[in-house]
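INFO batch 0412 | record 1 of 1 | parsing
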Amino acid sequence: MAGTKEIKTHIQSVQETKKITNAMYLIASTKMRKAKADLDRTMPYFSALRGEIKRIFRTVGNIDSQYFFPEGSQEDLPGACGYLVITADKGLAGAYNQNAIREAQRLMDQHDDNKLFVVGEYGRQYFSSRGVPIEQSFLYTAQNPTLQRSRDICYQLLDRYRAGELVKIFVVYTDFSGLASTARSVRLLPFHHAHFASASSEKRVKVPFGFSPSVETVLDSIIPSYVTGFIYSALIDSFCCEQNARMMAMDSANQNAEKLLGGLSLQFNRVRQSAITQEITEVSAGAKAQRQKRGKEM
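INFO prediction complete | emitting tokens
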């Protein structure tokens, strides 16, 4: 049975660990609030871009663009599919990384020709250890998602898409809804015309707009910015989910530490009381022995 010294050392160790987990909880909550604020400031711009694309379709109708499926075509296009998988750089975030990787594997199993693009050190280490080739790994993006890094990712993916190296591009990320986090996979390119279909309540444009030099050129200049916004939103959502998962994990660790400290304190009190009782018994026995000795001498 452990003594009071060992139990006291264990209690101090748990208390020090609890300080670390509590600090990680506070840091994660601060990062999540800041990331959500950054996303809220930038999303109106990308929402306006989506509105302009919808306005183009209300004005012109059918448009022949490399970023869209042709009307009446099948979505199963032959060629390589690109996957942008967003994970974290660190662990201690519950099942956040495992859920995103599981969703990516499920999606990749449906195609034979796959090209993998990874955000986050966790995902890079996972796929590399299993011999899965990685086309590009974007370093430091998971812990610092910015609009510029989203734009860099967008341009690299679009360059391969325009060159014909990729016929489809999917984004695997974790959607942040505030209460629950869900790993999602979304086909980023090519778009389907229904993706920008106007609602029935929206009025169609009666007087056509003028596009210079052509509507295709205007659309080709807008789509990269829209794709950048989608990637940026996916990065921020994943980052918020990571911090939320880490907060939950650290909160669970704090609760477990409290339970452990309660059990250790009870054990410490029992051992100390047992030691005190033993000392009292020894003193009483010694005093009784002394009385008996004096009685025999008398």
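INFO post-check: The helical segments are 4-60, 96-108, 121-129, 147-162, 215-297.
INFO record closed
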